[in-house]
Specification:
Blueprint lengths: L2 H9 L2 H18 L4 H21 L10 H25 L3 H14 L1 H12 L4 H29 L13 H28 L11 H15 L12 H21 L16 H19 L3 H18 L2 H15 L2 H8 L1 H6 L4 H14 L12 H4 L13 H36 L6 H21 L9 H27 L1
Helix pairs in contact: 2-3, 2-7, 4-5, 4-18, 6-20, 7-8, 7-9, 7-11, 7-20, 8-11, 8-12, 8-19, 8-20, 9-10, 9-11, 10-11, 12-13, 12-19, 16-18, 18-19, 18-20, 19-20
């Protein structure tokens, strides 16, 4: 065997695949909010790499993990939904376009299955996979924060700049997933954080820190919330708040003695908690400034449910009060006040949803994937940019028919039940790491719930950047499903 053959054998070994795909997925998480083209290339390379390894080791892999649950509650419903897509393509109005969309969806839906296969066939311990998952989530947060700074300064109308950052619709859809995870990290950090403090010093001590950063970031984006109309101090206020953030944040992050060490959950100094607070304040302001009502609803529901399942009733009350506070901000208030007008306006959701219902009656098998734009042939008065139904379930019903919509709902419900089984398996585990598994499972599941709640008034399933991130989160759920067994094996 020559040197080239040895290098190829090493490249496609399970050990190399385990390491290299981890790096590819980590890179994807970091740039997911920055460039759709780069993310597609990275994921395509990872999936192709997996295909080759899968072919080489066919029949020779598999650990004793709970595969039946994933097959029953994820792979089988997913296969049925893809079959419904294929059938609707054959009965639709543009077969070629529909078949391309089915193939594209099938390729990227391999992502969660690849992540599951990797966890199932990797000798890595549960602890290592917990660390990997947290690394992925922090990479999402860092990348989203980088784009968020740009969003604060460019404004909602110009977020998609010459360097190609996603627009406010895509950014808000991704933030539904990221903010939910950030909130969960704060909840988990609080539990560990409080144990190292005295009785009278709890997380409430650090709420002013969040409030200060939230106000500073808000002034960076909307200085006029505290200034009268026509004020000459717009730019000075924006500049001053930016300078304070630039000077304060490195101090907060670098001087770990400001916070005691977080035990149990984080390896690094408890300055990680400070990073989470800053990132949470930043991304929450970006999320509000984007003025997207559907994602607002999705995040409120996701955070509220996460608070309830965590037993944090005070957090639930805080979410309600904070939402009321934000509703009094002038841009937010104006956006909410225009809800009825925007719903009934010509070409608005009311008109599109009525047309969607008519299309379902005309095409019981659907018009075919990626063919919802056919509605403009029925009503040319609709704006050119309206190429979908602004509702996930309705758009899927229009494109894939009754069979597609039923199988899609079944798939989502099955993911929910699989998440519950995974959470229950962690709860029954005596391992000290099981609490991390419960928190991560709940965080990722409720992030997906928020994604679908936002999808009641927009078609975020059709946005490639959001959908791919959601598929990645599904992959994390499948990985978590394998970890209770690994905890049992390692005990």
């Amino acid at each position: 065997m020559n040197f080239s053959q040895q290098k190829l054998k090493l490249l496609f070994s399970l050990e190399s695949f385990n390491k290299n795909v981890h790096y590819l997925l980590y890179l994807y998480c970091f740039i997911a909010a920055i460039s759709i083209a780069l993310t597609q290339i990275i994921l395509a390379v990872a999936i192709l790499y997996w295909y080759i390894v899968l072919y080489i080791y066919r029949g020779n892999t598999g650990l004793n993990c709970n595969t039946d649950q994933v097959k029953t509650y994820f792979i089988f419903p997913l296969a049925l939904w893809l079959l419904a897509n294929l059938i609707s393509s054959l009965f639709g109005v543009a077969i070629t376009r529909s078949l391309k969309e089915v193939i594209s969806s099938a390729i990227y839906l391999c992502l969660p299955i690849m992540m599951y296969w990797l966890a199932k066939n990797s000798p890595a311990s549960a602890s290592e996979f917990f660390n990997r998952i947290k690394q992925y989530l922090f990479a999402f947060i860092v990348g989203q924060s980088f784009v968020g700074i740009h969003s604060l300064y460019s404004g909602p109308e110009e977020v998609k700049s010459l360097i190609g950052f996603p627009g406010p619709v895509t950014e808000s859809g991704q933030l539904v997933l990221i903010i939910t995870v950030l909130f969960a990290l704060l909840l988990e950090g609080k539990d560990s954080f409080d144990k190292s403090l005295s009785e009278h010093c709890r997380l409430t001590t650090y709420l002013p820190l969040f409030a200060v950063y939230f106000i500073l970031f808000l002034l960076m984006a909307w200085p006029d919330v505290i200034l009268p109309v026509g004020s000459d101090y717009y730019l000075p206020v924006r500049l001053l708040s930016s300078i304070i953030v630039i000077l304060a944040t490195p101090t907060l992050i670098n001087y770990s003695f400001i916070f005691p060490r977080l035990s149990g959950f984080y390896r690094s100094q408890s300055a990680d908690y400070g990073r989470i607070i800053v990132a949470f304040a930043l991304l929450l302001v970006v999320f509000i400034v984007n003025l997207k009502r559907g994602p607002w609803l999705g995040v409120i529901v996701a955070l509220s449910m996460l608070s309830l399942i965590s037993g944090k009733k005070l957090c639930l009350i805080s979410i309600i009060l904070f939402s009321l506070f934000c509703s009094f901000l002038t841009p937010v208030h104006n956006r909410l006040s225009a809800l009825s007008e925007h719903f009934t306006i010509a070409g608005g959701r009311k008109q599109m949803w009525e047309m969607g219902y008519d299309l379902i009656q005309l095409y019981p098998f659907g018009v075919g994937p990626d063919n919802a734009r056919y509605m403009r042939q029925i009503d040319p008065s609709l704006p050119d940019l309206h190429r979908h139904m602004h509702n996930n379930l309705l758009n899927i019903a229009v494109e894939t028919g009754w069979l597609g919509s039923i199988s899609y709902i079944w798939w989502l419900l099955a993911i929910g039940f699989l998440s519950y089984l995974t959470w229950k398996n962690f709860k029954s585990s005596p391992s000290p790491l099981a609490k991390q598994g419960m928190m991560l499972t709940a965080a990722i599941f409720f992030a997906l719930v928020g994604w679908q709640v936002a999808g009641l008034v927009e078609y975020n399933f059709g946005d490639g950047e959001i959908r791919t991130m959601a598929f990645f989160f599904m992959g994390l759920l499948l990985v978590l499903n394998t970890l209770p067994k690994k905890l049992e094996q390692n005990s």
